[in-house]
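Researcher: Here's the sequence for the chain we discussed earlier.
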Amino acid sequence: MLAHYLNRFSEIAGDRINCGPVLNWMEIDNHGNRLVVGDDSAINIPAVAAAHVIQRYVAQAPDEITLQVGDIVSVIDMPPAEDSLWWHGKRGFEVGFFPSQCVELIGDIVSVIDMPPAEDSLWWHGKRGFEVGFFPSQCVELIGDIVPQAVASKIPKTPKPVLRRHGKLITFLRSFLVQRPTKGGLKQRGILRERVFGCDLGEHLLNTSQDVPDLVKACTKFIEEYGVVDGIYRLSGVASNIHRLRDEFDSEKSPELDEFKKDIHCVTAVCKLYFRELPNPLLTYQLYDRFAVAVADEENRLMHIHGTVQQLPPPHYRTLEYLIKHLSKMAEMEEKTGMNTKNLAIVWAPNLLRSKEIESGAAAFMEIRVQAVVVEYLIRNMDLIFNNKLFPDVPGLAVAKEHMQRPKSIILLHCDL
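Model: Thanks. This is the structure I predict for it:
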């Protein structure tokens, strides 16, 4: 009888019942299936903190969640580091475990209810989560100098000046602002074009709905097919051909690369030029210091570089993985091209990794070394660095992995009636 009831309940309700306590009490999921929910189930558990993702992580088990740099995570449980390095949380509608080192807690946000003038009192009144109380005003800083609604309501409102002139010029300006064309309309009419060179990588991929820039895909495929020649990526092409090819890519056209078979080096030059002109380099200004630290620690270099690469924004990570796989393939053809891994790293490094602060002097020579070592390491250890595991599978990491033992899973278990 119970089985018949649950089957009928599933047909009627579908997946519309999502209330955790109800499903827990009835011992069914939101499809009417019989299950046993553990006492420590994560259904509808309130979060204790918020965090943003600073390092990429791909789930390795059904009860883990995948993280991308920039995501916001609601933390349900964060045990002390000596107990476990795994936290439990929610990302959207997903609930599961994730490594604590992949996120960074977001600082406390306080909603101000009342902030009297400094000459009256240095104590403000506000809310933090579900707590309401007083706190010293010098302990907080207003976000964007935004006056709280409760305080703004006490400020006397002064009427805004109204423009009453209705001359021809005012009427024309108003109609121009109201009727001005949209960005999409300007694109369709060919007036507005999306830049390729010099455009932020994330913005370019978002505007073009691509995972990796078409320019990079087209050039690398063409080079792998026709560019197995001596000095590839080291020699430069004819300047006029480079400018012509660049202009064709920048005009949102798909250039006929077959025309450049006799000058394959201009294709390689355009490919390097694209990365050199990125406003933020492929390996980003923000991570330069981390890469420099990774190079200095020879014993744990692979682990540090692997961890730093996982901190790249998703558009940069995808593009870097695509490019390094291409360079690794070209390095395998060194007998025909004379360009081994080290040579490729030397010519490519300045285009991929740069520092904003270092421009000249002795530090600039150190920068060249950091650039070359990092890029060479990426090419040589491509399979270990670009994987979905928290640590690369190499000897010497056993100690680190011991501290990353997963806590007991709290996944829901289905059982037959």
